[in-house]
Design goal:
Helix 1 packs across helix 2 and helix 3 crosses helix 5. With 338 residues, the chain is α/β, with parallel strands linked by helices. The protein is built from eleven helices and eleven strands.
């Protein structure tokens, strides 16, 4: 298993806890990433949103790509998986900038291609926002242009969304960046199997992840590509006893005063008490991070991780809080590297 973590560009991951002790700042990000290298983490995912989806839109959110360029210059081994939304970046200009960042990083750049979902953000910034099917048509063209510029001396393309004429990208990336992507619609999975290198999923139990990996592996084989990598988001809590871990879980999911974001959480009070509790857990941590239930003792987490490895998962993208302290604990007690 490879271990990655989400760079806390929003100042944390808990919607029910206002101050998690990890500010959205370059200083915190730099120190966290350098320490992550030292204690054995393989990768960091740097999310790209111009608005703060976790703490509220009025709160700071670090820019993904300038942060990635800065991290490339002050790190040595960690893979920098940076989210990119095709409708916000012209592919030819992006290919040029990303190749330069990869050169700075010595071949450690990777892309997490995300089809935009937040219409209000696009409206605020005056950016193009596509309906669902158009997103994937745009993304297919975007990936074609980026890859063409990275691999050919001159690249021409004429599509519905983009056009280039004998465009040059030099220098090329030091190593062609791995392209990660996620999505659960038919169009998303078809595109990813054909054009991407790795499939990343929201958190789910092993019995839900196993058929997703099997399905994507079959699609990839049918598309004639080399085997894909598979990653999953998860929120991790490791403690010396299961009771301690459950107390921490209760702390981060207990709602006292409703955050402003709950106004966008449809009918969160509806249904049975069980439904309400499940909805609160889904809202408390993004990307369905609590569904894998990486909550418990080191022995319990190692066994659950082994179960995921057994069905073909090879990358965990972890959120923790507070990130620096919990990453130290996880590395020492679960990874055995700190």
């Amino acid at each position: 298993m490879r271990y990655g973590y989400w760079t806390p560009v929003f100042g944390g991951w808990l919607r029910n806890v206002a101050d998690e002790g990890m500010e959205a700042s370059w200083d915190y990000t730099r120190r966290l990433t350098q320490r992550a290298e030292q204690i054995g983490y393989d990768l960091t995912l740097i999310a790209e949103l111009n608005l703060n989806d976790i703490k509220g839109v009025e709160q700071p959110a670090l820019d993904a790509w300038s942060t990635a360029a800065a991290l490339a210059a002050v790190t040595e081994t960690i893979e920098l998986m940076v989210a990119v939304r095709p409708n916000f970046h012209h592919p030819a200009l992006f290919a040029k900038a990303a190749a330069n960042i990869d050169r700075i990083a010595g071949g450690r750049l990777a892309l997490n291609v995300v089809s935009s979902w937040w219409a209000d953000e696009a409206k605020q910034y005056g950016l193009q926002f596509d309906e669902h099917d158009d997103r994937y048509a745009r993304t297919a063209e975007w990936l074609t242009v980026v890859d063409g510029l990275w691999t050919e001396d001159r690249f021409s393309f004429a599509g519905q969304f983009y056009r280039t004429e004998n465009a040059i990208c030099a220098p090329k990336p030091a190593k062609r960046p791995t392209v990660y992507a996620g999505g659960e619609s038919e169009k998303a999975k078809t595109l990813i199997a054909a054009l991407c290198d790795a499939y990343v999923m929201h958190g789910d139990p092993v019995d839900a992840i196993a058929p997703k990996i099997a399905d994507m592996a079959a699609r990839r084989q049918a598309a004639g590509g080399v085997p894909m990598q598979y990653g999953m988001a998860a929120y991790a809590i490791v403690r010396d006893s299961e009771a301690e871990a459950q107390r921490e879980l209760e702390r981060i999911t207990t709602v006292t005063d409703l955050p402003a974001g709950y106004a966008n959480f449809d009918q969160w009070l509806s249904g049975t008490q069980l439904e309400r509790d499940l909805k609160i857990q889904e809202y408390s941590v993004s990307n369905r991070g609590l569904r894998p239930h990486l909550v418990g003792t080191p022995e319990q987490l190692r066994q659950r991780i082994a179960d995921y490895e057994g069905v073909g998962l090879d990358l965990l993208l972890l959120q923790m809080s507070p990130q620096a302290e919990e990453m130290e604990r996880f590395a020492a007690q679960v990874m055995g590297t700190a």
